[in-house]
# Entry
Amino acid sequence: MPKTTRKGGKKSGFHYRKNLVKVKIDYLTERLGGVMSVADAIQADKSRVSRWAKGAAPDERNSAAINDLEYIYQRLASFLGNESADKWLDSPNAFLKGRRPIDVLQEGKMVDVLAAANQEEAGSFA
# Structure
C-alpha cells in the first residue's frame, strides 16, 4: 500500500527506502570523509556508493551494511563526538579481543560492536 508523505502526496515504500539510503550515504560520506571511506567501511565498490548517493537502491546485503554502519556511527557520535567515533571504529578494541570494530562490523557482527560501544559508554574496561 502506498505511503502518504507529510505533504500529503503518495510515495511508494520502494522510493521511500531509496531516499532513506541516499540520506544515510550522504551522512556517512560527510562523517567518514568521502565516498571511498564509506565504500571501504562497507566493503563495496566506490562506484556503487556513488550510485546510492544519487538515489539508486542497494541490494539487501549492502543495505544492511549501510544501516548497521550508520546506526553504530550515530550511536558512538552521541557520546564520543564525531572525531572520536571515527577513531573508535578504526582502533583495536579490548571488548572485541583486540580487533577493530570496523572489521567486526564488516563481518556482520553488529551485535558485538554494539555491545562494545555500550561498554565504552558505560566506562567499562575489558
